[in-house]
Amino acid sequence: MASSGGYSPYPYNLLSLLALRIHLLSNYTPCVNPSHSRVDALRYQLDFVNFGLRRYYEEGAVRLLLADDVGLGKTVMAGLLIKELMMRGHVKKVLLVVPKMLVFQWMRELAEKFDIECQVCRERCDTNCGIVSIDFLKRRVDDFLQQGWDFVVFDEAHNLTARGREPTKRYQAAERLASATKNVLLLSATPHHGDRLDFMARIRLIDRSVTDDDSLRLAVKRYVVRRLREDVHDETGIPERHSTTLKIAPSPDEAQFYGEVEKYVRYYYGIAQKYKGKRRAAIGLVATVFLKRASSSTYAAMRTIERRLKALEAIKRGLLKPTETPKSELEAIQRVVDETQLDKEIEMLRRLHQLGQALATDTKYNTLKKVLGEVLGKVSEKIIVFTQYRDTMHYLAERLRKDGYHVVLLHGGMSDEERKAAEAEFRDKGQILVATDAASEGLNLQVANLLINYDLPWNPTRIDQRIGRVHRYGQRRPVLVYNFLLDGTIDGRVYELLLKKLEEIRKALGRVFEYLGNLADERDFAKLIDAALKGRDPSEEVERLAQSKATLKDLEDLLVKDRVRLQKDPRCIDYVTDEELQTLVLGTLNTLDPRSYDEAGGCFRIKYLPKELASLCRGACTGLVGFGLSSNCPERITVEHPLAKAVIQYHLEKLPSSILAEVDKPCYADGNLWVIKGTAEVAIPEGHRLEKYTLSHVAAYYQPNTTQCQKGQVPLSAITLPIYIQESKQSPQPPEEALGEVKAKLQEQVKKLCQNKENAILAEYTSMLKAIDKKKGLTEAQKASQKEELLQKLEATVNMLREACGNAKIETATLFTAIYKPLGYLTLGVEWGSDLMEQGAKGEEIAMELDRKEGCHIVDLRHIPMTGVDYIAVCPDGVRLVEVKTVKGPDSKIHIQPVEWAALCASKTNRARRAALLVDLQYTKALKNHMYLYVVDLSNNTVKKYRDPCTHLANHVRKYKVTQEKYVIPYNEFTKLITPTVELPYDN
């Protein structure tokens, strides 16, 4: 900021105050700015991002597990957090580790919603934002460790398992990467599998001190954010879902065909049991693939039989070499064989093929057609049909198209552009989307509310994933799910038992068993099929499985009971709206050179930059641009857009470090305001390196002179209260207590950071000491010696940590000073300004007293800047948000400030701010509330109450605009524009 001189006159300098506020809110507060992205985020989503930012500012790092329910927008929350940390310069290199099928989905979401360009990592990842599949990472983890990531996000983190003695390679790779990265975020709607040790291992990815139940509980309280659908239902509006299982009875010919398929499968599965190791697994895979494909559709079964027959005949003639290590189901069908049974198998397959060719009807497809006839256009305009296999997908598409339906296909073999085109076609024209599981991950298809599982995958979690494509944030209609079960098949019987058991224990134990994947995973299902193929009763196995999942409820209770409780941060009521950003950018262009831009069909064409901005622009600052989520312009201006950055920098360079200002809010109309920044730097030893942590805190501090306003910290938005300003030659120093509060806050943050680090060290060494006791082959003396050596290392490590924390460097500095005076002080003199201030305060007291007489409870907000209202009146007929204006007859003027106009005519973002205010003041959002403008006329002792005045004023106020969105309306004209809802006399 400028230190003196060369500053342009009003109204231009008020834009500089807005620029300062935007700069501070965007860079120094732990609050997400919704205008930074292209998503219309809900409050609970913003709450998480605010919590993540607060954790970063207070502890120097973000390490969290976001375990919100399916469909609540974890991708949105992760994207917002990444965006904020990158934009503020806190992280430079971000790596996203995701399932293979989600790689391009993540790349697209980050680009389209957050303007973050990421690169898919194939060899090296020389980029600031990389995306890699977990399976690629596990093969190349050493390469990724060398690239110095600041922030790593693990999506679908439940796939990082550490069951049994040996953690999976996925987990090992994640563990190495997480331990080398300061900021780590795990995402999973199902963060545990009912296995406590496995869940504990997952938590160790973000806190290596977790070694037992006690430390696990503490870690859940610190690191796990979990909101269930019912927790946020009022905000999401996600409707209920209803599932129906349709048992399909095959025709006699179909039953004979399925019976012969089962005989073949049992025969081949029996052969597999004669072998061990890879050979048993490979031959067993052939049997199970046949079973799954036959259950999917007779068409898929026939294609599988034909491929198998062709391959076996080629092997018999020596044209194809068998294998015991197939890389896919298709390769297993074509190249895995027991050559001692080759002729017999070929004979069985030919028999199966003959039976299949003789089938005259497809009962399963006919059932689908019947369901479509009943629901399409009545219950839902669009329907999604899921299947595991492309053979079934193509078969269904061909038949449905012949029957006159507009069908769109989606499968895992499509490129990202093809997927986008298919999704768009389905949204715009399609009636039925037929999709494979490989394509289901990452889809957001709330445009449909009816889903049909044409076949059921052997991984029950995939059913939950399918449903999650439509039953999620953004869905507005009840979701209906049809599960097709083929009666008389092995897997149909297993699924029927599982679904029945799921309903039983859901009624007994609650929502933890709402999802089938919580009862059985892929390995569990395989065991049930194995039992059935070996002749055991699968119902007994299902019962044992349910009993083994008893710990699942215990873990879920732990997550719900001990999860992080997200506290509302009062600083986050205030944020930058798109309207304010538009005011700043266009107001600056208009002041510097009105010809530099023009309006073009709802957009703004920036033709060239005024010379004052040209040298500050770093990037493309001209062209067709717009503001806000609804903008359909080629470029959307956000705080980080090169043009916005140039405008903000220009104002910060011009704004004096100390100003004298007129304020029309009586509470703030006589006093000093300072913006104080504090930083703390501490270098903490971590392993063989020093990890530098920088903590910061910015606060606005107000000290009144003669008003009744309380002294102390106030929202940063108090910066933009002035109506008129000029540079001040004086620059009063902030009181020591103000600097002391900022310093004390930083000392508290350093202490908390260091204590957490010390706790982690102690827990790790405690675990190592316990491990010594369990070592075999050591004498007691050897154990004691190793323990002594370990304790010495512990003491040295803790001493180094404490020394580093004791040497933390804490500094404070005053960024900005404002001397506030009453309205009229600069132009009309001290006495006139004081009279106006007293007049305003008197009118407010009169208005509040009248509402009290009506039985209203008053919540005075005059000491809180940027609410846009003077008080809240909780009355018998609802909640009134009241702004008071005081006049002395028709020659007076009504002054409406930008924040007041925003409250009167609440846009979506301002409605969110209003809702936040009501919630933070403990008034339920269910209360009916209206905005009121009260005009107190001291000349005739009347109060006029205008309910929702924006409706009448919006079309007229432009001609009264002074600057930004400030309006000054002569009172005699104001009374012609709007009729009071109520007019009351008051006692003088």
TrEMBL record:
The Helicase ATP-binding domain, residue ranges: 55-209
Helicase C-terminal domain residues: 371-513
Key words, A-Z: ATP-binding, Coiled coil, Helicase, Hydrolase, Nucleotide-binding
InterPro entries registered for this protein in UniProt: DEXDc_RapA, Helicase_ATP-bd, Helicase_C-like, P-loop_NTPase, SNF2-like_sf, SNF2/RAD54-like_C, SNF2_N
Single GO MF annotation: ATP binding
Coiled-coil regions listed in the entry: 743-811
PANTHER family in UniProt: DNA ANNEALING HELICASE AND ENDONUCLEASE ZRANB3 FAMILY MEMBER (PTHR45766), SWI_SNF-RELATED MATRIX-ASSOCIATED ACTIN-DEPENDENT REGULATOR OF CHROMATIN SUBFAMILY A-LIKE PROTEIN 1 (PTHR45766:SF6)
Protein's recorded name: Helicase-like protein
